């Protein structure tokens, strides 16, 4: 469990002895905490006790202060999880552990490719204290910084927690208070510090397997070896974790009918798709094979479309392999000089990232591929297309819907003899993509991290301590995916596709003969679909002679690839000592130091996705580099292109601290830090004060107040962009999020007041926290921008013609009129900006009581909880228009706002019984219910059935509270072996229903169902 610091007073002699035990830890500690943690407990067998003691960690003085010998004042809210504790919980993964913290909301780590805050970072993880954003929690390892994940949250500046070498970690410390005065930028919400094991002697190997229904399971191996000498020690560890694919198709709750959860992965832009006869452009029809292939014959506005379920092609868990290798050496160079060096390498590979067989056709072809001027910007299927010819032969009559009135009529299929327009379409849908064996489109993610940190510390003859440290860290990410080249697809519809077809129109007309020689047709009709790729239901109308040629698909369906890297160099030096000024509680102590940070960010793209090489739809095949209208954003149907960048920045900081032992029972600490970024970003000064009063032997009070800040990370100060997939007025569209070189640091004031109790076998704490910060760096809210332009939804009055909204309208790319958004919006342009102010406050609770002598052992009851009182977000403006009024985010889903979901209550309670070699733990994890504040999905008659009649779907407005029960058992066996068995989600509860693509909220819910984990650990 999370344990509060001991709040009892210690004698000065005891503090001195403890300091001598580990006098070098005061800088590497990541919190204001002094706590003794034994990483392994005693057992019934003497042999086991002997072996356990070889890896026991000495009592460590961790202060979060640069002042040597600072007493354990418990002035700041810090909680700790040790390796022993993790074993008792069944050794959860880093993502599971961080997601379960009551103080953490909106954790990245589970697959969630449909939320812009998680897209593209599959395989990486994060921690998000207070729900203030993962980028506002400073993650340290042994008190030192790590480079940011170059892809994490669209480059917003988060550390990838999946690179942490779990096998080497001795404890995790969580400082739940702003800490910029001590650590500098990024610690607005607090600090999470992973601290490695100490004093390890011998070899330990471990393995585990987790059974997950519908998956091949997760499993891993790790080994740790250490050796301690009189004047030093060494630690080496290696770990490997494998996660098996878990398809969305394996979970019934994620595969619901269209009219049960229309937002759960249903799209109107599909294949089978819809067609408009050129002879009657006010009428249209959907491919009649829609229902038979598993689609939903519905309507988008008045257009008949085939809704299809795309999420079964995606995964809840991606197949991945992760390796972490870590080593450290500690040596006493002399009686007063110590040396430490540590090296980390980590690699994460997601080789088969699954997504939709293809993306929707949001961009349109240019004039170069139009057979007539009137067809420019349209996907045209000529009468010569074999798929159209076969369709008319198989369907003598067709049912058409008037696109203006909605009336239906029957017409001879000969109405298509002049050709057709292909609308609400994409190249591949229900039947899968032939390039990938009629399955999902498959991309990849890979991350490589390297870090080395060394420090030298000692003491001058006058008693002043000194330390110098250098740290270099980097993470490189590679991301690939596929999308359709717009003009090539348009040519293929006309029989001018394929790598051997000459389609270079340097003169009026296009070279090549449709369907002859090397020129091939693309068949957009259902006759090219063998079966439903997910259900396996065969298509009776499939014609193998009309199936789309794989070489043709390879020609227009191209790989996009980006390699991005972040690097960080930190040099720091600290002096510390005592003054000659004494207070009733002791001497005033001090520390002062300086830090230099240099960070780098680099982004490279393959040629086809490089905005400098292929900026327009018509660049690859026609050499056009001046984009107009909807031709901008690159040559692809959906995904945008990126601009290469190479950015770097320098930060210089100076800091100081004072420790004031006012009395024997009152301890205070003052800290201040100055950082300068230079250039347009500027500088910041941040003070902090904390105090602790031992009011009675059993109760202490603590309080802190300070200011904190975060400078803009390098990826966000470039001029490049990322393309996200987001819902706009009920349909998915491309949202391009651009960086901003003019970003300023965000600043915050933080306050904490707490009570700590220690009465016999009871320990507990209550803390009130408050964060008040200005100019937070956020992506502009998509929902707010859309709602400002369309306040009454897609069908109501809008502000398209309002001159005051002209700049906001210009943010959108339309393939038609602004007034018909569901069929015309192609993409939206947004920026990272310094956004609206935020005020966040609430209470943290922690309690534990031990009953001794229960059934021959000890029974411990305890729990942690966080109550969020308010999370107020100020008014947001874009282009001078108020796009989002001030609101309180507590208890809301906060979809497409600047905030993650914020349940009001979150917590864990547990009962743990220990006797001899046995440990049994039952825990209950609770997440409060919250509300989906969106209006459009729950509006009256927001959807249509197969007849076109309006349907209201109210389910999912309230996302129910989630209660998960976990059971873990650990036993020490002979031969220095430990076995663990853990059952998570004991009662096999489905995640709470939410009107989102995956059918649940991946930031808070657990999609795995009941799982069984078995682990074995052996010491040599």
Roughly what percent helix? under 10%
Uncertain regions: pLDDT < 50 for 5+ in a row? 1-63, 505-509
**Rounded average pLDDT:** 87
The fourth-level CATH homologous superfamily of the largest domain is TonB-dependent receptor, beta-barrel domain
Class of the largest domain, according to the CATH hierarchy? Answer: Mainly Beta
Rough outline: elongated
CATH architecture of the largest domain: Beta Barrel
| N-end to C-end Cα span | 28 Å
Tally of DSSP helical segments: 12
Count of extended strands: 51
Reported by name, the CATH topology of the largest domain is: Maltoporin, Chain A
Major sheet size, sense and barrel closure: 22 strands, antiparallel, barrel
Q: What does the radius of gyration come to?
A: 31 Å
Count of discrete domains: 2
Question: Would you tell me the structural class of the helices and strands?
Answer: mainly beta
Percentage of β-strand residues? 35-45%
Provide tags for this entry.
single chain, 1020 residues, Maltoporin, Chain A, 22-stranded antiparallel β-barrel, 12 helices, disordered N terminus
Per-chain topology:
Layout: E1 3-4, H1 12-21, H2 46-53, E2 78-82, H3 83-88, H4 94-100, E3 137-141, E4 144-145, E5 169-175, H5 180-183, E6 190-196, E7 202-212, E8 218-229, E9 232-243, E10 246-247, E11 266-267, E12 274-277, E13 283-286, E14 296-300, E15 303-309, E16 315-317, E17 320-332, E18 337-355, E19 380-381, H6 386-394, E20 397-402, E21 408-412, E22 420-423, E23 441-459, E24 465-484, H7 486-493, H8 550-556, E25 557-583, E26 586-605, H9 619-622, E27 645-660, E28 666-678, E29 682-696, E30 699-710, E31 721-728, E32 731-738, E33 746-759, E34 762-774, E35 777-779, H10 782-789, H11 806-809, E36 812-814, H12 821-824, E37 825-834, E38 838-854, E39 857-873, E40 876-878, E41 881-884, E42 887-888, E43 905-915, E44 918-927, E45 930-931, E46 943-944, E47 950-951, E48 958-959, E49 962-973, E50 977-984, E51 1011-1019
Parallel strand pairs: 3-6, 32-37
Antiparallel strand pairs: 1-2, 2-5, 3-4, 5-6, 7-8, 7-51, 8-9, 9-17, 10-16, 11-15, 12-13, 12-22, 13-20, 14-15, 17-18, 18-23, 19-22, 20-21, 23-24, 24-25, 25-26, 26-27, 27-28, 28-29, 29-30, 30-33, 31-32, 33-34, 34-38, 35-37, 36-37, 38-39, 39-42, 39-43, 40-41, 43-44, 44-49, 45-48, 46-47, 49-50, ...
